Amino acid sequence: MKRTFIIVTLLALLGSCAVQKPSGQVSNKDVERIIRTLSADNMQGRGISTPGIEKAAAFIADEFKKIGLQSLNGTKDFRQAFTITQIKPATTEVIIDGNQVDDQNVLIITDRTGINWNTDPGVEIQHIEAGQSFFNRYREIIRSEKQVLVFVDEQFASGFNHIRESVMNGHLTNEVKKGAAVFLLGVHQAKSFRVNFTNKTERIALANIAGMLPGKSREKELVIFSAHYDHLGIIEPVQGDSIANGADDDASGVTAVISLAKYYKKLNNNERTLIFVAFTAEELGGIGSEYFSSQLNPDDVIAMFNIEMIGKESKFGKNSAFITGYDKSDFGQILQKNLAGTDFKFYPDPYPEQNLFYRSDNATLAALGVPAHTISTDQIDKDKLYHTVDDELETLDIKNITATIEAIGLSARSIVAGTDTPRRIPKLK
Ligand SMILES: [Zn+2]
Asked: 279-316 pLDDT, tens per residue?
C-alpha cells in the first residue's frame, strides 16, 4: 500500500515537472502561409490528375526538404509514387423484349472491360421491390460478385440516380472485381434481354508525399503524422466560383503535418522514428493511405495521428479538438495526460453516428490493429462549408489552428519519446 503510494506520488511529481506550456514554436504566420498556399485558386482544388495537385505535391515536398526530413526508404524526393486503375463507363446499350431502355435508367456496376449478354441463362434475375431497403439490397447484390440483372422499382429513383451519377464519373481501384450487376429502373420483368456495355480503363499515376525523422534509439518503431492533400478539384459552380479550395478539408491538416515536422526537427529528441505523410486520393476512398499502409508492417506502427479538418472552432469551443475512436485504445488518455496544465483539451468524438473513425485515412491501419486515430475540430453535423466551393481560408480561425497543432505536438511527446505506448485496438474481421 505504502509502496504504491510512494510510487504514485513520485510519478505525480515527475508528471508535474514534465508539464510544459505550449511552446510557441508554431507561428500563426507560418500556419497561415501554408494554408494560403495550399488552398489558393491556382491549386485548382487539388483534384486528382490535375496540374493543381502536382503543384501542391511539389510545395509539400519542398517544405519537407527545407525542414530537413529524409525520404522514406526506396523513395526519392519525398514522393511515394504508385499507379492505380481508373474505370469509367464508355458505351451502354440495354434492350428488354426488343425495346431499348433509356440510358438514364441503366446503372451498371462492373470492373470488367465489357459485358455482352444475350438472354444468357448464367445471368441471375433479381428484384428490388417497393418496401425493401434499396441500399441494403444494392450492397448485397454488389458483394455477391455474380452476374445479375436487377429490376428496380421506380420508387427508388433518387437513390438509383445518386449512385448512377458517381458511377458515371468513374472510380479508382486496386483490385479488379469479377462481378457484373446491371440495374434497370422502372423495368419489372423480361422475356429476353440484351446488354452491350464497355468500360474505359486507364492507369493513373498518384503519389503520397512522405518524409521522416529517424529515431535516435528505437528506429524500427514508427509514429505517423498524416493528413490528405487532395480535395475535390473543380465542382459545380456557385455564383461563378467552381474551385473547391479545401482550406479546412484538408489543407488545415497538411499544415499541421508540415508544422509538426518542423516542431520535432527542432526538438531533435525523437527516440522513435517519425513519419510525416500527406496522402493523395482520400476523397476517392482512402486510396493513398491504403497504398501507404501496404508498404509497411502494421506491427511496427506504434501510433498514427491523422489530422482532418482543424480549421474551425470545435463543438467544445476554443482550445479543444476531438479524437475519433477514443474508447478503442488509450491513445486519447495519453494525449490528454500530456496536456495537463495547459488550456487545451481533447474530447471523444461527439458524432459517433457519423462513423468518422472508419471514414478517414486512419481507417486502413486501424483495421489492422494500430492505434490510428483522427484528430478534428469540425462540427460535421452543421458545417455548411464542408465539400463546397466556400471552404476557403477566410472562413478559418488561424489562431485556433495554431493552438491545435501545438497541442498535438505537446500531447504526442511521450509517444515520440518512447515512454508511452498506446494499447493496440481490436482488428477488424
Ligand atoms: Zn477530408
From this structure: 999 988 899 999 999 999 999 999 999 999 999 999 99
**Helix (H) and strand (E) counts in the chain:** 11, 18
Q: Give the homologous superfamily in CATH for domain 20-84+204-417.
A: Zn peptidases (3.40.630.10)
**Residue that is written with C-alpha cell 458505351 in the block:** 91
Which of 361, 403, 354, 404 lies closest to 380, judged by CA? 354
Report which of 103, 105, 116 is spatially closest to residue 193, judged by C-alpha positions: 116
The torsion angle over the Cα atoms of residues 229, 230, 235 and 241, rounded to 10 degrees, is 20
Q: What is the pLDDT of residue 23?
A: 58
CA torsion 263→210→255→400, rounded to 10°?
Answer: -60
| C-alpha 231 to ligand 1 mean position (Å) | 7
pTM of the model: 0.81
Look up cell 418496401; give the residue.
Answer: 131
Listed residue (115, 172, 177, 199) closest to 149, CA to CA: 115
Tell me: the pLDDT tens digits for 253-275? Answer: 999 999 999 999 999 999 999 99
Cα-to-centroid distance, 324 and ligand 1 (Å): 14
Quote the ligand 1 centre to 318 CA distance (angstroms).
Answer: 21
The residues with which 182 forms a beta bridge, in sequence order, are 108, 149
In angstroms, what is the C-alpha Rg of the chain? Answer: 24
Distance, CA 20 to ligand 1 centroid (Å)?
A: 31
- Cα(382) to ligand 1 centroid in Å equals 16
CA dihedral (103, 104, 110, 112) in degrees, to 10, reads 30
- Locate cell 474551385: which residue? 243
C-alpha 251 – ligand 1 centre gap (Å): 9
- List, for residues 16-28, the tens digit of each pLDDT value: 444 444 457 899 9
- Ligand 1: distance of its center to the CA of 283 in Å? 7
Separation of 359 CA from ligand 1 center, angstroms?
Answer: 9
How far, in Å, from the CA of 416 to the mean position of ligand 1?
A: 25
Question: Domain extents for the chain?
Answer: 20-84+204-417, 99-191
Residue 273 forms beta bridges with which residues?
222
Question: For residue 406, how far is its CA from the centre of ligand 1 (angstroms)?
Answer: 21
